[in-house]
Task: structure prediction
Amino acid sequence: MDETTPEPTDERLRTAFQLLASETRLEILHALWNAPEWTATFSELKEAVGMRDSGQFQYHLNELTGTFVRRTEDGYAHLAGGIALYRAMLGSVAGPETVDSIPLGDVCPACDEELELAYENQVFYARCSACGETVLSSPFPPAGLENRTDEGRLRAFDRWTRRLIGLLGDGVCPWCASTVTHELSTDSTDGSPRSVRITHACDRCGGFLRTTAGENVVDHPAVVAFFYERGVDITEIPHWELDFCTSDEGVELVSEDPLEVLLTVEESGDTVTISLDEEMRAREIDRSSFGARSDGSRDP
Ligand SMILES: [Zn+2]
Ligand SMILES: [Zn+2]
Result:
């Protein structure tokens, strides 16, 4: 961004936060949050907030209008953004700050030691207890840790992460709904194999997640059907237990620019090959029985 040009988004963001620096306005938002269908009349709000001066009260309501509140025929209602703010905070201010790591019952693709799920800074990390390799990570509100057993937390993390990856892969930011850019990186640290990772980053809020090729095709109908036809419902298997989601096994980098990755997944001796492009569009390009595609070649 050109330094001489004012940044309208930043300005609007600062203004929105400044609006919250008023006890009266916070009281108004709180009253609306607790009102039926997040809607209340002027006098209901005024009474809930306990302010006598109508002029002053109207001023604060006007300030909020357009950013957190909208005017209705009978009064005022929370805008969806105002409700989302409350929900984000409710997810964030509840629950424990840390929990003990939970064994994932699966091994690290890098060193074969046990993987565990750790929780730090409101982010879940599925990582190796020995070498520190992180196979999956995603932000998770601490409220989601409450009232759940370890088993329930594992399931919630799996479901939550799949939804995040699904939306990001579809080009919709799960945090602010803006557009998403996908970028390929190929890491190669000493001795370890070259790994293909895709970083999905929101063009507006900067929210991002790094995924494997496999995580981007785990919900593709060809992959789900391929397993289902062989008696395996992968929609019910946590994705850290699916080897093609946590490792680069079967991944072939055809081209870096434009991005094209092939992923061959095996089950019961059969394989399915999926191609993934720079827009994260996945399509089945081959299906073979008994590992016929052993040369890694690409079919027309
Ligand atoms: Zn390891
Ligand atoms: Zn975003």
